[in-house]
Design a protein that fits this description.
Layout (H helix, E strand, L loop, with lengths): L24 H14 L7 H23 L1
């Protein structure tokens, strides 16, 4: 599917990344780890783990800002 331009589209589509399906989020964490799931999209729970990562970073940032303010 790489470099294929469909009717009505201007940007060619890239090939889909390879990922392995797992049963649940816990299995994704134990099999591929947090970084592998969140940043490397090794399974279908990449977006969920990215939201968890965002929550962690926002909490840390908010705590630092609260302590400095």
């Amino acid at each position: 599917m790489s470099d294929e331009v469909r009717k009505g589209e201007r940007i060619p589509r890239r090939a889909l990344p390879e990922f392995e399906e797992v049963a649940n989020f816990g299995e994704a964490m134990s099999k591929h780890g947090f970084w592998g799931t969140a940043l490397e999209d090794k399974n279908q729970y990449g977006p969920v783990s990215m939201m968890v990562l965002l929550l962690i970073v926002a909490t840390i940032t908010g705590t630092i800002l609260k302590l400095l303010g």
